[in-house]
Amino acid sequence: MDISQLRREYNSGSFTEKNADESPFKQFEKWLEDAEETGFLDPNAVAVSTVDKTGMPTSRIVLLKSFDIKGFVFYSNYESTKGIDLNENPKACMLFFWDKLERQIRIQGSVERLTPEESDKYFQTRSFTSKIGAWASKQSRKLSSRYKLLREVAGYIAKYPIKVPLPPHWGGYRLTPEYFEFWQGRESRLHDRIVYEKSDNDKWTISRIYP
Ligand SMILES: Cc1cc2nc3c(=O)[nH]c(=O)nc-3n(C[C@H](O)[C@H](O)[C@H](O)COP(=O)(O)O)c2cc1C
């Protein structure tokens, strides 16, 4: 398979300083709505990169579950690889990519945990099996067989047949952004890249960077 010849022109849109909303959050919302309307299966899927104490980065997809001017929220296991990285280094980069729209968004910032009350509010909206799964999965640790996992699932169903409490090792993370970059593919690789940076007075300054 020769992937060196896999390429195409990007020419479905443009993104200029004039079109850019003065709030990066509003701009994000517009693009996320566009992605939803375009029919992506998981328009809220986002790659989150963290860095461990040796400087080694790790990326993985999670589902963005909410956002507002305080930040971008996703849920996970606090003892997973990302959880360990975020304990050591509470910063992350999020990357959205919507191929049919020829757009990506990069968001960098610091990350903190939601309160257990906030996490529980979301946790209780999940399906019974997802709640049980959050108890049973020691996410990112070695597992000797799938059978072991299924036995542990059965054990938690027996323990919590009706009301499943929030596991202490599970909850939300909020990334508070300091930097946004909106990328729109353009013809001849002369893409639009519009950056929002937070200045000291909490205002966002908008600039363009070379493609
Ligand atoms: C579409 C998609 C959505 C996912 N959503 C989540 C999520 O919301 N939370 C989560 O912890 N893992 C989610 N995962 C699994 C992660 O990519 C990853 O495997 C897991 O969180 C363990 O990552 P870690 O070992 O780097 O901590 C998702 C994976 C995919 C492909």
| Largest sheet features | 9 strands, antiparallel
Separation of the first and last Cα atoms: 29 Å
Category from helices, strands and their pairing? alpha+beta
Give the overall form. globular
How many helical elements?
Answer: 5
In CATH terms, what is the fold-level topology of the largest domain?
Pnp Oxidase, Chain A
Radius of gyration: 20 Å
The top-level CATH class of the largest domain is Mainly Beta
CATH superfamily annotation of the largest domain: Electron Transport, Fmn-binding Protein, Chain A
- State the domain count: 2
Oligomer: single chain
Number of strands: 9
Mean pLDDT: 97
CATH architectural arrangement of the largest domain: Roll
Into which percent range does the helicity of residues fall? Answer: 25-40%
Characteristic terms for this protein:
alpha+beta, 211 residues, 33% strand, Pnp Oxidase, Chain A, binds flavin mononucleotide
Q: Would you give an account of this structure?
A:
- The protein is of the alpha+beta class and 211 residues long.
- It has two domains: 3-124 and 168-208, Electron Transport, Fmn-binding Protein, Chain A (Pnp Oxidase, Chain A, Roll); 127-165, no CATH class.
- Helices cover 26% and strands 33% of the residues.
- Strands 1, 2, 3, 4, 5, 6, 7, 8 and 9 form a nine-stranded antiparallel sheet that branches.
- Helix 4 (128-136) packs across helix 5.
- The model has no long low-confidence stretch (mean pLDDT 97).
- The site of flavin mononucleotide has 16 residues, from strand 2, strand 4 and helix 2.
